[in-house]
């Protein structure tokens, strides 16, 4: 939305915003905690409030057409893109294209945790969507792997919803999250943080039953019973379409008229910085169109 608005303000009047979800806003919609907008709006907003400010601006810019429930599935080097939407498939070739497809979560498989493959293992962001948008609580006794901000925030969220968070297990010697999140999400709720430890084994037949936690240095182990494991071990830019179009390094796309911004370029901590850089992408696309 920030990129589309910046291009619009720079004089581009024929803009299509394609979104696969049923509403605009991306990941912000599920981030119902505060901490957004301190730089851009100079006020403390929740994720949905931050998104809403942009949704209103997009609605007011009448030449920005929005196509929801529209999933881009194909992109070629000359910017021919194909998307699926209710009722059909559309192919078009914009003169400039800005990719803002966000990121995806790393999974248990990517960090090679041994053990069985029972139900009850969720990427933390998916669990956040279940709790905050769908209204489901996917477990009652939780172990969180990874102490980045998403893991910390979800430890608090599950606690507030009545689940018991047994521990956050972090392989590094320090938390990767903000100090304020360690204090406000763990210490305030007496949730143990095991630094320099890893979840070495997941046990359970149909559902998760327990995990084995190992001290990285002493190799001593202990077990924690739980029915759910939240995996919060990092994000990966979602840029398959750019690769599909033939750009070997999606962070530096070398296709004319193609611009990339937000978490699909690199993983940002703060949405304010996503907005700032996406505005630059919108301005760059407008400049490209003037000279093309
Ligand atoms: C749990 C969590 C907590 C956070 N906390 C904070 C915080 O406290 N403060 C802060 O400033 N920031 C926070 N952030 C970071 C910030 O929210 C994000 O960095 C930012 O919102 C990312 O914006 P984006 O537009 O790049 O990506 P996204 O919000 O992921 O948007 C990408 C959009 O592209 C769509 N899309 C993807 N592929 C396709 C396709 N093929 N076709 C059509 N549409 C597609 C997706 O549906 C999505 O709507 C947090 C993030 C998370 C996950």
Task: Describe, in plain words, how this protein is organized in 3D.
Helices cover 27% and strands 27% of the residues. By secondary structure, it is an alpha/beta fold. The chain folds into 2 domains: 159 residues, FAD/NAD(P)-binding domain (3-Layer(bba) Sandwich); 127 residues, FAD/NAD(P)-binding domain (3-Layer(bba) Sandwich). The strands form 7 sheets. A 5-stranded parallel β-sheet has the order 11-18-12-13-14. A 4-stranded mixed β-sheet has the order 10-15-16-17, with no helix packed on it. Strand 15 and strand 16 form a beta hairpin.
Cofactors and ligands present? flavin-adenine dinucleotide
End-to-end gap: 23 Å
The helix/strand class is: alpha/beta
CATH class of the largest domain: Alpha Beta
* Fraction of residues in β-strands: 25-35%
Using only CA atoms, what is the Rg? Answer: 21 Å
Overall spatial form: elongated
Would you spell out the secondary-structure blueprint of this structure?
Elements: H1 2-9, E1 15-18, E2 34-36, E3 45-46, H2 47-60, E4 64-67, E5 71-75, E6 81-85, E7 88-92, E8 97-99, E9 103-105, E10 114-115, E11 121-123, H3 124-134, E12 141-145, H4 149-160, E13 164-169, H5 179-186, E14 193-194, E15 197-203, E16 210-215, E17 221-225, E18 228-231, E19 235-237, H6 240-244, E20 258-260, H7 271-291
Helix pairs in contact: 1-7, 3-4, 4-5
Bound molecules: flavin-adenine dinucleotide.
């Amino acid at each position: 939305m920030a990129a589309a608005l910046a291009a619009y303000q720079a004089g581009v009047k024929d803009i299509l915003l394609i979104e696969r979800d049923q509403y605009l806003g991306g990941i912000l919609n599920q981030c119902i905690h505060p901490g957004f907008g301190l730089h851009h709006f100079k006020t403390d907003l929740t994720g949905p409030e931050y998104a809403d400010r942009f949704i209103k601006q997009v609605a007011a810019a009448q030449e920005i057409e929005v196509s929801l429930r529209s999933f881009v599935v194909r992109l070629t080097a000359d910017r021919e893109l194909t998307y699926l939407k209710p009722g059909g498939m559309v192919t078009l070739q914009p003169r400039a294209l800005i990719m803002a497809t966000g990121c995806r979560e790393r999974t248990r498989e990517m960090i090679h945790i041994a053990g069985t493959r029972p139900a009850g293992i969720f990427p933390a962001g998916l669990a956040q969507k279940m709790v905050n948008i769908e209204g489901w609580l996917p477990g009652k006794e939780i172990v969180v792997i990874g102490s980045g901000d998403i893991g910390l925030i979800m430890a608090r969220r599950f606690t507030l919803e009545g689940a018991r968070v047994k521990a956050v297990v972090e392989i590094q010697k320090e938390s990767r999250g903000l100090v304020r999140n360690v204090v406000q999400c763990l210490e305030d709720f007496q949730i143990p943080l095991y630094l320099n430890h890893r979840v070495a084994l997941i046990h359970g037949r149909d559902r998760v039953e327990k995990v084995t936690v190992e001290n990285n240095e002493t190799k001593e182990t202990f077990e924690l019973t739980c029915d759910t494991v939240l995996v919060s071990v990092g994000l990966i830019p979602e840029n398959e379409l750019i690769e599909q179009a033939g750009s070997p390094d999606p962070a530096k796309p070398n296709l004319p008229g193609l611009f990339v911004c937000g978490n699909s370029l690199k993983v940002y901590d703060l949405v304010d910085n996503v907005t700032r850089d996406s505005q630059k992408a919108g301005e760059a696309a407008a400049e490209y169109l003037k000279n093309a």
